[in-house]
Amino acid sequence: MPQAAPHDTVTASRYAECIRACSECADACDYCAAACLREPEPRCMVQCIALDMDCAALCRVAAAAMARESAHAPEICALCARLCDSCANECARHGMAHCQACVEACRRCAEACRALSR
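Below the sequence we write its predicted structure tokens.
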């Protein structure tokens, strides 16, 4: 019997929407951190960069846990939602387009993770 391709398996997963939101959030956070480092005064962006890095890392852990349907996925998603909220709140303090895009991705991810953590 042929096995489903990994992408097909994730697409069919009950976690598919949240996995997608986590992956998009991680990418937005990575981009934001890199863009913050290119700002004229990156020292002013230290908290933003640190939260971007933490959020991207945890979003990837959450996506991986959901992809393998870990029993701990709900708890990981609850923590991910809280970290996404913190990152969104920090990025919202900055007017740059990369920060605003990060805010949107973090809020979408937090909402999706919160829904799965209940």
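The chain has five helices and no strands.
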